[in-house]
């Protein structure tokens, strides 16, 4: 067993970059993003909850027609898209940090981060497609199943 002395360890405040965690600027940007996106997400989520739960008939009014009516307006499409993208990037960045902190082997870290990024891409692509291709009034549907705002 070898003994460590002070010359073997880097100075605690020494600037260093590692392949594991990216450059110092990458981590600073990620740290800043987490703070800024967290504040924006608070506004988006509480606005979403207020509109869905407090305005109108509250939670009892949430059904297919409610969502269809909201997503027929570009404002709500952009609102929900921002909420989806920011939440996914924010969460993925947080889990990436946890993987970097706790996965000791490079191979394990690579597999976990690959699965994380794959889940991110699938969720964001599918969510974005749903938000922008959602049609509450599909052609050929029975009139009694369509929301009231659809032209029969």
UniProtKB/TrEMBL annotation:
Q: What is its main location?
A: membrane
Keyword Iron-sulfur attributed? no
Q: Which cofactor does it need?
A: heme
List the residue ranges forming a coiled coil, or say none: none
The cross-references to InterPro entries, in alphabetical order and at most eight, read: SQR/QFR_C/D, Succ_DH_anchor, SuccDH_FuR_B_TM-su
GO biological process, alphabetically ordered: cytochrome complex assembly; tricarboxylic acid cycle
Please name one Pfam family that this protein belongs to.
Sdh_cyt
Superkingdom as given in the UniProt entry = Bacteria
A GO molecular function annotation here is: metal ion binding
- Biological pathway: Carbohydrate metabolism; tricarboxylic acid cycle
* Alphabetic keyword roster: Cell inner membrane, Cell membrane, Electron transport, Heme, Iron, Membrane, Metal-binding, Transmembrane, Transmembrane helix, Transport, Tricarboxylic acid cycle
Give TM regions: 28-55, 75-95, 115-134
Task: Please give the GO cellular component terms listed in this UniProt entry.
Answer: plasma membrane
Under Gene3D superfamilies, the record lists: Fumarate reductase/succinate dehydrogenase, transmembrane subunit
Membrane topology reported for the UniProt record: Multi-pass membrane protein
Q: Where in the cell is it found?
A: Cell inner membrane
CDD domains, alphabetized: SQR_TypeA_SdhD_like
Q: What does this protein do?
A: Membrane-anchoring subunit of succinate dehydrogenase (SDH).
**Protein name as annotated:** Succinate dehydrogenase hydrophobic membrane anchor subunit
Q: Which organism is it from?
A: Miniimonas arenae
């Amino acid at each position: 067993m070898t003994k460590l002395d002070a010359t073997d360890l880097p100075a605690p405040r020494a600037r260093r970059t590692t392949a594991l965690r990216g450059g110092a600027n990458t981590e600073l940007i990620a740290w800043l993003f987490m703070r800024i996106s967290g504040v924006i997400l608070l506004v988006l989520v509480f606005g979403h909850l207020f509109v869905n739960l407090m305005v109108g008939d509250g939670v009892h009014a949430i059904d297919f027609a409610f969502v269809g009516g909201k997503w027929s307006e570009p404002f709500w499409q952009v609102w929900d898209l921002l909420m989806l993208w920011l939440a996914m990037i924010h969460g993925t960045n947080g889990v990436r940090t946890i993987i970097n902190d706790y996965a000791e082997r490079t191979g394990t870290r690579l597999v976990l981060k690959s699965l994380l990024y794959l889940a991110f891409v699938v969720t964001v692509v599918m969510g974005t497609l749903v938000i922008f291709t959602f049609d509450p009034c599909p052609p050929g549907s029975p009139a009694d199943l369509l929301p009231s705002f659809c032209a029969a």
